[in-house]
Specification:
242 residues; mainly beta; five-stranded parallel β-barrel; elongated
């Protein structure tokens, strides 16, 4: 047991020294395998690109990561692609393509394509294309695909299907939104829920308890329907403008 502890301690010290000696802010050499206890205790160091397998026991950093990426928490300062499985948080500073599954949060600062699945937050600052599942909050700059979560929020032009307690598209939304509350700045599609709001122009169908649209071509079915450009701006049961 003492020999094993000595070997592990020696490995940690050697890894720390190696990381210090090999680190470069300008170069990004390639490795097939990266092993990390907690950066900077990792081999090779954080400025390397991984093409193959990365394993982070506690926390690890790399530049680009391509392949299978496993651990408790991890950061890619460049881009990434492949399968990423993390216990808490997985963060990519650049673009990502593949499968990203984390216990708490998936974060992509660039654009993302594929699957994001977490319990707390799926976040893509740029454009997301694919499927986001089971998170409390799904957030995207722009969106194409399927969102299933507690609160789905998209800032850019979006196309697809939203299912959540609340759905918000603060730019333009093409598709179906199903939830207790649905909001779109400009809606082209279907809103189905208790409260449906199309703040600006749009075209489609709203079905709910309260439906509200400003400049809209389509149909409203609900207890109370508000349509600013309708023949009658406020109508129970049914309102429409074509």
């Amino acid at each position: 047991m003492k020999k094993l502890s000595l070997v592990l301690l020696s490995s940690v010290i050697a890894g720390t020294v190696l990381a210090r000696d090999m680190y470069s802010n300008e170069e990004h050499p390639v490795t097939w395998v990266e092993l990390s206890l907690a950066t900077p205790v990792q081999v090779p160091p954080a400025n390397w690109t991984v093409k193959g397998l990365r394993c982070n026991l506690i926390y690890g950093e790399s530049f680009d990561v391509y392949g299978i990426d496993l651990g408790f928490a991890g950061l890619a300062r460049g881009s990434a692609a492949g399968i990423k499985l993390y216990g808490t948080v997985d963060w990519v500073d650049g673009d990502f393509a593949g499968v990203q599954v984390s216990g708490l949060s998936d974060v992509v600062v660039g654009n993302a394509t594929g699957l994001q699945l977490s319990s707390l937050v799926n976040y893509t600052r740029g454009e997301f294309t694919g499927v986001q599942l089971f998170s409390l909050v799904n957030f995207n700059g722009a969106f194409n695909g399927v969102q299933l979560g507690g609160f789905n929020y998209d800032k850019g032009i979006c196309c697809g299907f939203q299912l959540g307690v609340a759905n918000a598209a603060v730019n333009e939304y093409h598709g179906w939104s199903i939830g207790a509350v649905n909001y779109a700045e400009r809606l082209y599609g279907l809103q189905l829920g208790a409260i449906n709001i199309a703040a600006e122009n749009g075209r489609g169908v709203q079905i709910g308890v309260f439906n509200c649209a400003k400049s809209y071509t389509g149909l409203q079915i609900g207890v109370l329907n508000v349509l600013d450009n309708g023949e009658l701006p406020i109508m129970p049961v049914l309102n429409a403008h074509f």
